[in-house]
Amino acid sequence: MLDKTAIRNMFEKVKAEGRDALTAPEGKLLCDAYGIAVPQEGVAASSEEAATLASGMGFPVVMKIVSPDILHKTDAGGVIVGVKSAEEARAGYDTIIANARAYKADAEIKGVQVQQMLTGGQEVIIGAVTDGSFGKLVAFGMGGILVEVLKDITFRLAPLDKNEALSMLDGIQAAEMLKGVRGGDPVDRDALADMIVRVSELISDYPEISELDLNPVFATKEGAIAADVRIVMDYSQPEPRHRPSQDEIVEAMNRIMRPKAVAVIGASNEQGKIGNSVMRNLIDGGYKGGIYPIHPKADEILGHKAYKSVKDVPGEIDTAVFAIPAKFVAGALTECGEKGIPGAVLIPSGFAEAGAPELQEEIVRIGRKYNVRMMGPNIYGFYYTPENLCATFCTAYDVKGSAALSSQSGGIGMAIIGFSRSAKMGVSAIVGLGNKSDIDEDDLLAFFEQDENTKIIAQHCEDLKDGRAFAEAAKRVSKTKPVVVLKAGRTSAGAKAASSHTGALAGNDKIYEDVFKQSGVIRARSLKQLLEFARGVPVLPTPKGENVVIITGAGGSGVLLSDACVDNGLSLMSMPDDLDTAFRKFIPPFGAAGNPVDITGGEPPQTYKNTVKLGLEDDRIHALILGYWHTIVTPPMVFAKLMVEVKEEMAAKGIEKPMVASLAGDVEVEEAAEYLYQHGIPAYAYSTELPVEVLGAKYKWARGAGLL
């Protein structure tokens, strides 16, 4: 084992030489130090030395140029594989040197690496990249030339443990190839996982390693060995982000979200002004705490005594809502700091988003100096319904519930408010984050984690300032409460040029996708999904197993519902013979048992009742998807009331399972769907996808939280 002092000295030497990449022999030293298996090799300084080295390790061998100025060796004609004799080794040496000179005349050439040639096994890549938001990430995928063609790769935050490393082997599309196909041997999964863990330790120990490739790694049933190593360095390390402790975050967020007193800076008696709307919402929304309007000239605003400055207000203030132009914010924020106010809600725009980053940098400095946590700027404010708190210029909101939602965008925030009101989805909070000069998604997670009024957290974001802090918070919170995220901009690839295969494949959204999975986050693909998950997931009881059964009155919807199950990672139960026989007792001969259970469209209400009751009673079935088809025999509201009756009858016996419903028919199905939803069965008119997506989201959370 090479000690860390020796590695540090090697890095200092590379830096002193002005290099941003290690040579292959230097890379081998690192691999040896961290127990990463690599082939026998040596560096030849002459054709004769190349022949001697090759003969000593046994043919065939691979020969590669060693030059700090040539990173992509193949492009330079600097690689020859399958060298079978001493004579070929001599000739190969001369050819490689000549090709390198032709490729880059002024390249520093240190010799030619002679390496034991590996054959057989599955070629994979193990790599690492540094992301601006998430920091160090490890990658795994199909290797060799396939890495660039298939782009089949998965990422995890480093460092990681053996279980997470094993999950990476199953996280690529070609996972089955590693298990052995068409008579081939399966690879040694433990050896691959160990190598992934060692790479994660290496890049965590040395932050200056920017990118790393082990490609290809030859994986066989006996083990794993890295045929080539490429390591790129970056010595300019960013300043670590200022981060309060968990206790400090929770203490500040509790005072901001549940204040005993609120100041409105820029309060106004004039209708149409933001300061007037904020005041009216605080009053009309029913907030019972102290309300202190701040205005340089007014004596009273909307029945409340006005003050020239927050410093003139007697007693403590927990939250100050700003409704003044951007250029005046810094001065008022300083007064808040001097008053000891812990939270500022910055509604004004005109900061970084409007080409004035210096204004935003100034308020960040002030907030840090006085320990004032800031929400915004450029936001609509926030709602916290348990306190009847509407600290916003939007409409007052009073439908209380258990979903906490946030958005980076004001427009998305308005959509959240509108949907919540229209769908009668009670919320605990709706929060605008805007420019995220300070408070961001992980601060909200810390608050909602300990908020007894919140059961699910749904967040819209365009970026994450500190992806690693978010991932750590989400991983913790999602064990007890579902966390749903709509990440905007998922189609844009990372624009940063990369020197390694891994770096080139680290498209921004792929990293978000994999880190969200690693953190137990449910990812919404659209605004509609975000809102429906926030509404539906808390309604459903947690399933006790993976077996899902579809009961439908229409064969066509049964097929679409089955497709949706596959799309959403749900497992359609293989129907046991005895259960198949039990279902057939209730359906006509031309119906179909199996799964889906097709009771056909002309059946009376009793058929729906009997089959659904059987599905709830049988312990082998863990969740039901209902497909209803509008008929005269069983009208929509008859179906809906009957399903609720069966559900409540079973609940009285202690039997509760998640049920969702898809309703096809004329407009009456809308009323029936709403009735079902209000009674604990998420139901959707005209859609076979949405109910299954909601059930799939519940399953994703339950799996991630270890509840299945």
UniProtKB/TrEMBL annotation:
Q: Which UniProt keywords apply?
A: ATP-binding, Nucleotide-binding, Tricarboxylic acid cycle
Question: Where is coiled-coil annotated?
Answer: none
Q: What SUPFAM superfamilies does the record point to?
A: Glutathione synthetase ATP-binding domain-like (SSF56059), NAD(P)-binding Rossmann-fold domains (SSF51735), Succinyl-CoA synthetase domains (SSF52210)
Q: Which residues form the ATP-grasp domain?
A: 28-64
Where does the signal peptide begin and end?
A: none
Q: Which InterPro entries match?
A: ATP-grasp, ATP_grasp_subdomain_1, CoA-bd, Ligase_CoA_dom, NAD(P)-bd_dom_sf, Succ_CoA_lig_flav_dom, Succinyl-CoA_synth-like
Its domain of life? Answer: Bacteria
Q: Which PROSITE patterns match?
A: ATP_GRASP
Protein's UniProt name:
ATP-grasp domain-containing protein
Q: Which organism is it from?
A: Nitratireductor thuwali
Taxonomic placement: Bacteria, Pseudomonadati, Pseudomonadota, Alphaproteobacteria, Hyphomicrobiales
